[in-house]
Amino acid sequence: MRVTMPGNSSDSKTQAPIPRGATSSLVDDHQSSASDISAFVAKARALAPKRSGSNGRLVFALDATMSRQPTWDMACRLQADMFREAGNIGGLDVRLVYFRGLNECRASPWISDTGQLARLMSRIHVEGGHTQIGRVLGETRREAVKEGVRALVFVGDAMEENLDDLCARAGELGLLKVPCFMFQEGGDPVAENAFREIARLSGGAWCRFDPGAAAQLRELLRAVAAYAAGGREALARLSQTERGASALLTQLR
Fold first, then answer.
1. Residue 186 has what DSSP assignment?
2. How many structural domains comprise the chain?
3. Where are the alpha helices (DSSP H) in 93-176?
4. How far apart are the first and last CA of the chain?
5. Could you give the percent of the chain with pLDDT greater than 90?
6. Average per-residue pLDDT in the chain?
7. pLDDT tens for each residue of 3-52
8. Is there a domain that residue 17 lies in?
9. What CATH number does the domain containing 234 carry?
10. Buried/exposed 195-207: b ≥16 CB within 10 Å, e otherwise
11. 199: alpha, beta or left, given left = phi > 0 and alpha = psi -120 to 50?
12. Segments forming the whole domain that contains residue 78
């Protein structure tokens, strides 16, 4: 089922963003020089595996521009399922990242409490603006180099950036073994092409879900939570009972 989503509205101003301190504003990455890239690759190769007994770390990113309103409301309700699945496996810490408006991209601290994340998300409201997927990928890379990240999940319906730049950042996440799970609402072909490439280059997976399809998105989020908390083995176990997990497992490298 395909539904035509309303376009972004520059007139749509909403409530104030999350209070200062709850999230931090992200800055744009500078262009990488040859020495920067060499240093980055060396650091990526030196990264130690996630220590046993620690929670899995998942960056949960959302497009909060105006066309995302239906999915944003769904995500606020469904993220609890993602945490519950991780709790059954061994725990999950989530860093919520969202973008909206003219140039706003914010990230929360690492959160392991379902209620705290739900409260943060309930304070965020959509605003008209363009996509900032590159900043999401850059934030994920920084966290992966700093302390380790198991996966990135992104939920969106559009891509309005330079695809080559996004692919370069996705490739860097692939070197760090941070797969990007790109969940696309609707059937925009430009977004599909970009999301598929980001998933491929990072070693992740792409899936489309119908607008307003809560059950589909719930399955996908549960599957990523299983992977982030327990790795490929946990995702394989979940794939025996849920189609969403099976669809992701077949794409992972």
1. S
2. 1
3. 114-122, 133-146, 163-175
4. 29
5. 37
6. 78
7. 333 333 333 333 334 444 455 655 444 444 455 545 544 544 444 334 44
8. no
9. 3.40.50.410
10. bbbbbbbbbbbbb
11. alpha
12. 54-249
**Does residue 9 contact residue 69 with C-beta atoms inside 8 Å?**
no
| Beta pairing class for 151-156 and 180-185 | parallel
Token pair, residue 139, equals 């934030």
Q: For residue 127, which of 16, 210, 5 has the smallest C-alpha distance?
A: 16
235 three-state secondary structure = helix
Is 15 buried (19+), middle (13-18) or exposed (0-12) by CB count in 10 A?
A: exposed
Query: What is the DSSP pairing of strand 180-185 with strand 104-111?
Result: unpaired
Tens of pLDDT, residue by residue over 104-142, are 999 999 988 767 777 787 788 889 999 999 999 999 999
* N residues, the chain: 253
The answer to whether residue 1 is domain-embedded is no
